[in-house]
Amino acid sequence: MKKDLHPKNYRFVVFQDLNNDHTYLTRSTVDTEETITLDGIEYPLVKVHITGSSHPFFTGEERVLDIEGRVDKFKARADAAAKAKKARMAAAKKAAVRADKKAADAEKSK
User: Fold this and answer.
1) Would you say the C-alpha torsion 66, 72, 74, 77 has a positive or negative sign?
2) Which of 13, 39, 96, 97 is 20 to 30 A from 49, comparing alpha carbons?
3) How many angstroms separate the CA atoms of 106 and 100, rounded?
4) Domain containing 88: what range?
5) pLDDT at 11
6) Tell me: the pLDDT tens digits for 74-104?
7) 6 and 57, same domain (yes or no)
8) What angle do CA 25, 28, 30 make, to 5 degrees?
9) pTM, full prediction
């Protein structure tokens, strides 16, 4: 194995879940400016947004992230795109009919 590959500064660090303030005391090499006191001992503190104590997969609870779901938003965009395409096709068809009529009038006047 290669020598001096892994860091040597392992120390106890507290990871705090911002969703439910649950804390985990573990060893890590992460650098942080913040500290926290647990059981009278001061540890470096790392704040994280989600952990096993708040993630829906591990807790078994579903959370609604927004009122209108992603599938509904996709369907709405698809419907709007279909309407816009239909309007463009109708406009192109009208323009083609007008061009044909203009060409026919030009032929008659010759």
Assistant:
1) negative
2) 39
3) 10
4) 64-110
5) 92
6) 888 999 999 999 999 999 999 998 988 888 8
7) yes
8) 115
9) 0.49
Question: Residue 21: which of 33, 9, 38, 7 has the closest Cα?
Answer: 38
Q: What is the pairing mode between strands 35-38 and 23-28?
A: unpaired
**Which two structure tokens, joined as six digits, stand for 19?**
């969703």
The pair of three-digit structure tokens given for residue 48, joined into one six-digit string? 């994280």
Count of structural domains within the chain: 2
* Residue-wise pLDDT tens digits, 63-76: 655 656 777 888 88
Domain boundary among 28, 45, 63: 63
**Are residues 25 and 12 in contact, defined by beta-carbon separation less than 8 angstroms?**
yes
* The length of the chain, given as a count of residues: 110
Q: What Å distances lie between residue 110 and 42, 69, 103, 104, 107, CA to CA?
A: 99, 62, 11, 10, 5
